[in-house]
Fold this sequence. Notes:
The complex is a heterodimer of chains A (1157) and B (293). Chain A is mainly alpha-helical. In chain A, 78% of the residues lie in helices and 0% in strands. Chain B is built from 17 helices and no strands. Chain B is an all-alpha fold and 293 residues long. At the A-B interface, helix 37 of A face helix 6 of B.
Amino acid sequence: MAQQANIGELFSMLDSSxxxxxxxxxxxxxDNLNSDRGPMLVNMLVDYYLENNSQQALQILxxxxxxxxxxxxxxxxxxxxxxxxxLHTLSLLGHVIRRQPSWKHKLSQAPLLLSLLKCLxxxxxxxxxxxxxxxxxxxxxxxxxxxxxxxxxxxxxFGRLSSWCLKNPGHVAEIYLVHLHASVYALFHxxxxxxxxxxxxxxxxxxxxxxxxETFEEVVKPMMEHVRIHPELVTGSKDHELDPxxxxxxxxxxxxxxxxKISLDPKEASYEDSYYSVSQPVSICLxxxxxxxxxxxxxxxxxxxxxxxxxxxTVPTNVPxxxxxxNSSLLKLVTIWSPSAVxxxxxxxxxxxIVSSESSQTSSQxxxxxxxxxxxxxxxxxxxxxxxxxxPCISDDFVHVSLPSAAATPPKKEDKLDPGRPLLSxxxxxxxxxxxxxxxxxxxxxxxxxxxxxxxxxxxxxxVEKDREEDAISKEISEIxxxxxxxxxxxxxxxxxxxxxxxxxxxxQKKPLSVASSVQGxxxxxxxxxxxxxKSGPEGARDTPKQAFTPIDRPCGASDESPAGNxxxxxxxxxxxxxxxxxxxxxxxxxxxGSGQPPSYEHLFEVALPKTAYLFVSKxxxxxxxxxxxxxxxxxxxxxxxxxxxxxxxxxxADAHTKELNKLPxxxxxxxxxxxxxxxxxxxxxxxxxxxxxxxxxLLYERFKRQQHALRNRRLLRKVIKATALxxxxxxxxxxxxxxxxxxxxxxxxxxxxxxxxxxFQEEHDNIVAQLHSQIRQLQHDREEFYNQSQELQxxxxxxxxxxxxxxxxxKKANNKVCHTELLLSQVSQKLSNSESVQQQMEFxxxxxxxxxxxxELYLEQLQHKHADTTKEVEMMxxxxxxxxxxxxxxxxxxxxxxxxxxxxxxxxxxxxxxxDHLLLEQKKYLEDVKIQARGQLQAVESRYKAQKRITQAxxxxxxxxxxxxxxxxxxxKLDDEKTEAAEAAEERMDCSSEGFADSVAGYSxxxxxxxxxxxxxxxxxxxxxxxGSSSELSTPEKSQNQRMGQxxxxxxxxxxxxxxxxxxxxxxxxxxxxxxxxxxxxxxFRNKSESQCDEESMTINSLSDTLKSELCKDPSMxxxxxxxxxxxxxxxxxNQDCSVGQLHIMDYNETHHDHS
Amino acid sequence: xxxxxxxxxxxxxYEKVGFRGVEEKKSLEILLKDDRLDIEKLCTFSQRFPLxxxxxILVWKVLLGIIPPHHESHTLVMKYRTEQYxxxxxxxxxxxxxxxxxxxxxxxLCMHQLESGRLPRNLAFPLEPEDEVFLAIAKAMxxxxxxxxxxxxxxxxxxxxxxxxxxDSLPQLPKVLEQYLNVEDNRLLAHLKACSAVxxxxxxxxxxxCFAGCLPESSLQRVWDxxxxxxxxxxxxxxxxxxxxxxxxxMALTNAEKIIQFLExxxxxxxxxxxxxxxxxxxxxxxxxVHLV
Lengths: 1157, 293
């Protein structure tokens, strides 16, 4: 809120009358806009503008940057919908669009466009329509590509408005229709220029209808007279012209120019390159060539142009009142072009002619230079020249200087120019400078100075620029209370230094202005003439300066000039009643002055760009010629351009106004325009206002166009400059080429010289070579001779060497022989010495031999003396001894043999002995084993025997027990004694037998002995009895009572014994009662007896073996044979025999063993 | 060496690892194959290892001298033994000491008495302690051995051995027992002493009857193996083990009579373990029985 309030205050201060405050506020707004992205501020600005029509707000809005465009467009769109604000909004939109903002491409998408189109289609207010159409026309080249979708809308609008122009359905004032018509005309141009095929087809379809035919006849057809056939109609198609590629390369101003090219209307058209034939300029060029015949074409021509211009300027018949103007403007030009360094042409071309002039006129040198340098290459853009202030002191010099230079140069055809031409050329200069000045002055000139300034300005404007200028000025006037809204014009040159200059200029111009205005007013106002009376007037007026370049047209132009000027003055006076508006005054003035001088800067082109200027001039002349001729014809026709109509209208208005204005005192004129006229009817006021508005719009539109043109111009100039630079470069290259050719020639010359020298040298060289060759040949010959000689010598040398070798061989052989002989000699000498020694030895031996022979003889004598007979005896003894020795030897041999045998035997026997020992041990072991075995068996048997004994005892006890009981019984009964006796005897026997078992074997042996041969039963019986009795007594003490009956029992026993003794030999083994007790007993007895017998027999055998031990017992079986023989007699039981045999066998084995050991 | 080669070479390791009796039967068979059986080796074997039951009778008979070491004479000797048995039996029948209905044990007793010449005059004679021992052993043996003859011979030989060979050592055993008990568990010994039961322990049952009637036959056999093979010390360890096994109960009992009563009728279910432990204990205290008497 605070911010809003703040903004409110700012708004109030926005239109402050103080310039500084305004600037500050504007800066503040811009800062805000930069920082804030919201739509609020923009909306408020729009509102403010619509309310107050604030110039500052408009300024801010028209320079809005990217992010705010949408809000602005939205806001505008919003207001566009309302009929009340539509007009203002449109004008705002126009302002904004003319600025060509960076976001202009967005316009095509904005709903604003739609609403604009809709408005144009539906609105009935002429003012709105005119404004809208102008806005649309402005907008079209900006959106060439995206606008195509609205193409039919555009066409529709055109259709509607064109018909409107004719029919005037709103019944508005005619004056509006003029404006509308002009805008429709512009639209026509634009559409035709941009979309020719589509537009033509639209026209075809639209005006083929009957109801539109009239419109076509009345409105469109005249328009079509002002256009040429568009090339696109031939080459392009409907689709092709909508192709984005077509528009891609074209900028806005390109499009505008493109459109302008089509136009035949001199007010609309622009003339460029290809639209004009080049035939005309060529002739002039040729003319020029003739004038400047000296060699180097480019530089020289430049200079010549420079000269011509100088000549033009320095016409002696200089009108004095122009001096100041001319001074200032020319000086400006001088200063502008002076920095030759800027243009890049460092070397000012110096022509001999000028040099000569310079020599004569020392002071003129710098200026001629100044003029000549820019002629080489004017690199600075057209906009910039206006920046430097004119130093007034030079102006006089300049004029003076130019005069002699002109006089010095030989006069050309053109020199015959009448005074008008230099004047005009001057004026061109002036216009040129003024044009540059105008935008700057707009911002800076004070209100007080305005009238004079306007007057000054008015004289310099081109017809096209005139409108815009007028617009600006009128605006200034109408908004007199507010500050100028356009201080910042986007032109490069208008910076701070320029302000000063323009102000100073303005100050300096004060005086001349008054003069100028007065003079120009009647003398040079050719334009008013044209505008007031007929078309030929303005045409002619405008043509005059152009014609001035061509000597042919000159008289005509000159003749036209003054009367036209006079007429204008009158006519404007007449028409002033219609347009009492004061704003017309400057416009009219300007028209008056400016119209006559539109191409006034063209000569500068000539100066700056000789070629293009040349072309341009030729074009212009051509055109003018045409026009002049055609004017007369066209006068009667109705095909006046709507522009011209408008122009005329304005002219009239201006005239009327000036008339009115003249009645008023000057101060009020500047102070209050609106109240001028006192009491006009309100209706009229409204109309006038609207008209004013429309004019303003138109002006703005024209100004936009002018800008585009300016842009275009700049670009073209740039191209031209480039081209000239390239040409210069080319020329330089050609020069270089020439120089190089010269070099080449000189080089060729020197080459030839060198070749000649070379040839000479060659010859000399050849001579020398030939000489040398001959020398060489001679030398070679000599060499060969020497060679031959040397070869001969060499062969001799070889022979010599061979001889030497042979001699050496011989020498060697001789040496060898000598050596050999020496050797032999030494050998021989040795042999000799040897033989000598041998001879000596031989002699010695011989002597010895002799001595020995003598000794031998001596011994022989001695031997013969001695004789002996012991030989036989010795021989005998020797033989005897030999024999003895032999015997002894034999004996020894025998002995040793025996010894060996014995030894062998001993060894044998020892081995046998060891074997025997071994056997013996084994036998012992075995014996032990057997013994153990037998012992085991024996133990068993013994135990059995003991058991039997125990049994027997038990039985005996039993029996005794039984006996005891039985005796008790018999004692009691005493029935049978015998039985008792027998029983006793039996018992005794039992005792006896048991005793025999128990005590010893002696008894048995006795019995056995007794049984051997004799049978003594009584003795045995007795002994047995006695023994039995004793034993019974011993064993059974309790039976002592029965001893008395021993006799009976012995008897019974004897009888019992007798029987077996008799039958012993027969029935030993077959006892019948084996099971019976007695039988068992008997058998037992026998067994015991045989055992004892065995013992005896073993004894006998032992003795036998002892006796045999001494002898060699080689037959052990003999013992065995004896053994069976022994038991034959007593015939013991087989068991005994077996037992004895086993024992015998064992013993025998033992014995043999012993024998061997 | 031949024996060794026939033995499984792994036998050494079996013993090391703790398997017992894997090779015993085989080695015993090897021993028994010898002609003239080596009694000493058999003794050592039966002391070290439990005898396989199929060879037990044979080994016992050999060890007790019922049959000689020579295989040749076995049949003959057995024939004698049999005849002797029959004779004695017949004699006893003749003198009407025994009838067919007489129990075998008494028959054995009578026969033994007859053979030792101590046959009482009358059957009505009261039994002497010797006879009771004999009866107990015979009863146990009867369970072990099927053949009457073998049984008789084994019983009588066993008893004879006890009476002859161990006549001196048997009375020492109670002292030895006390000594080992002191080593193993002196608390128990103290307890027994406190109960004054040391002297009243069933020594007769343990040492004279050699646990006949105290242990079941299956366990008894293993004890008797050792006894027959010449070690009566095993009896001490069996007794010791019995005491240790039933230590808790014995400790619980404070009365000497009750202790003795309990010991005389020990539960029969765990005797195998007792015997095994006893043998281990015996081995532990007396070393491996190679050097044992």
